[in-house]
Design a protein that fits this description.
Radius of gyration: 27 Å
Oligomer: single chain
Strand content: 5-15%
Structural class: alpha/beta
Distance between the termini: 35 Å
Helix content: 40-55%
């Protein structure tokens, strides 16, 4: 099982890369490494292609829908322009052509003149004897720049991608509300730059010996540092498998304090958890695009009587909120959903769209038994997942061994291959959907923070001014469900967006309600404006420029 390399990774010769590097510098006048849609429309116009062709070129090159082209995506776009100029139709399959790298760079009318003018500017900057220069000029000029002078002077507010826009909106509009109502203590820690910039993540959950670690090794086609496989509960910690310059493992306490890693929020679970958390780094083409999370086997039977030293359910819930895909693994001999597994699945509430169920090791039973196992699994899941929709279950044997055809027969083998292809397609789409997922999670967070603020504001108003504060707070906590209903009716909010009552009670009991800051209406209005206007405008600005 292999993950196809994205558009940005399509190879081209070193000679063509040098040519495209000069072109990229011209199309990226501010040198931030990003060619935005407005910049690209002016540069790509020199190709003479129709708007329809250029629309397709952009859609394929910017497959992750980031709203800009890095150098790799830019080179891919140029290769596609060459194909189109040669009379070829541009489709997703164009990147799979074996002769793609052999095409000459496209013909760009007027580009040579602009390149010579650019070189003249570079040559005009003469260094002094002490190595400094009196003239501070960029290597290229703003011939294609759509970025205003004000934006160039204020890089902190410069927005050249959807993710940058979300960062700015969070700092300016959402974070002040979260801080005022202590949203980070009730729901999720405050976001950092690393949370926005993190690669798409896939988490694997399941009881011990259902093949989680083996599944990751099957994807990578190799083992990873810290991997252990066996019939007993071998993985006793959360292991994040991600890209790195060399093979090594980083302890949890170290990785949780690194500013460039999206794991700072795990500090809230304490040292007992961090001692059971580590990061496994290795160079691998797949890990350049996604991060994998291996988890300890969920306890079942007598093992459930042994309490973990940390909040296992809370940790899985934290990772679930950050992940792009959650794989629940079962095998034919472990279909029972234990109490701990039930709590873990319940903690995934609000992330149902990310869940995929995998019936692993399915070649250990024959076809007739497999039908019964599948039915039993669906029945078990139906009792835990409170949803009328049928959960998609992938059936297969995700390891490096050949399928046991003597047990499943030729029909079963074909079924497993098709199921693996479907699951692979889901995994391939993860990097492409990463930007959309970031926007989706940001909007969910903003709505949750707004409702949280309205709840805190309502509870604060219900508190007496002077006497009887303790009794009033206890009454509000005891009748919290009714208070939620009042907030829902007053502000016409959907009931499904409200937080879990019991968890809210537990955290609220540690606070004095009258000590909360007063929630200013303009802060809530700012979040409403962000959801209604700013985010749609952001997405519009960084959509395909040829639409």
């Amino acid at each position: 099982m292999e993950i196809a390399r994205p558009a940005a990774a399509v190879g081209c010769s070193k000679e063509h890369q040098r040519i495209y590097a000069d072109w990229f510098a011209l199309a990226d006048p501010d040198g931030d490494g990003r060619v935005t849609g407005a910049d690209a429309t002016k540069f790509f116009a020199m190709s003479g292609l129709s708007r329809a062709d250029l629309k397709q070129v952009w859609a394929i090159a910017d497959s992750k829908r980031q709203g800009f082209l890095g150098f790799g995506e830019f080179a891919t776009a140029m290769q596609l322009v060459s194909l189109a100029q040669a009379g070829n139709e541009i489709t997703q399959d164009s990147l799979k052509r074996e002769d793609l790298a052999s095409f000459d760079p496209p013909v760009m009318k007027g580009l040579d003149e602009l390149l010579s003018r650019s070189m003249a500017i570079v040559n005009a900057v003469r260094p002094e004897k002490n190595g400094t220069s009196q003239v501070q000029a960029p290597a290229t000029n703003n011939w294609f720049s759509s970025k205003s002078a004000k934006k160039m002077q204020t890089p902190l507010t410069a927005v050249t991608s959807v993710i940058d826009g979300l960062k700015r909106l969070y700092i300016e509009k959402l974070k002040p509300l979260e801080v005022a109502c202590r949203f980070n203590d009730f729901a999720s820690p405050l976001l950092t730059n690393s949370d926005f910039d993190a690669k798409p993540t896939v988490m694997l959950l399941g009881q011990y010996s259902t093949g989680k670690t083996t599944f990751i090794k099957h994807l990578l086609k190799t083992s990873y540092p810290g991997a252990h496989v066996g019939p007993e509960p071998t993985t006793d910690r959360f292991i994040v498998v991600m890209s790195g310059p060399d093979e090594r493992t980083v302890p949890g306490n170290t990785i949780a304090v690194q500013a460039d890693m999206p794991f700072n929020g795990l500090n809230t679970f304490g040292g007992a958890f961090l001692s059971k958390f580590e990061c496994s780094q290795m160079p691998h083409p797949l890990l350049e695009h996604i991060t994998l999370v291996d988890t300890p086997g969920v306890l079942s039977g007598e093992k459930q009587r042994t309490q973990r030293s940390y909040d296992f359910t809370g940790v899985t819930s934290w990772f679930a909120a950050k992940c792009d895909l959650i794989l629940l693994l079962f095998d034919p001999h472990k279909l029972d959903i234990s109490d701990e597994f039930k709590r873990v699945i319940s903690s995934l509430r609000g992330n149902e769209d990310k869940i995929r169920v995998v019936l692993n090791k399915a070649d250990q039973v024959d076809t007739q038994q497999l039908m019964r196992v599948y039915g039993a699994l669906m029945w078990s899941l139906g009792k835990v997942l409170n949803t009328p929709e049928v959960m998609r279950v992938y059936i297969g044997s995700f390891n490096d061994k050949p399928v046991n055809e003597s047990a499943v027969g030729p029909i079963g083998k074909d079924l497993f291959e098709k199921e693996q292809e479907d699951l692979l397609a889901d995994l391939v789409d993860i990097p492409k959907k990463a930007c959309d997922r970031r926007v989706n999670e940001f909007v969910k967070r903003a709505r949750a923070a707004k409702i949280h603020a309205l709840i805190i504001g309502h509870l604060k108003k219900e508190m007496p001014t002077v006497m009887g504060k303790a009794k009033a707070q206890q009454r509000l906590i005891d009748n919290l469900q009714d208070e939620f209903a009042k907030v829902q009716r007053e502000y016409h909010l959907p009931a499904g967006d409200f937080p879990d009552v019991e968890h809210f009670k537990e955290v609220l009991a540690t606070y004095s309600i009258d000590k909360f800051e007063k929630i200013k209406p303009k802060m809530v209005q700012a979040v409403d404006d962000m959801l209604a206007h700013d985010i749609p405008e952001l997405l519009k600005n960084f959509s395909n420029p040829y639409q």
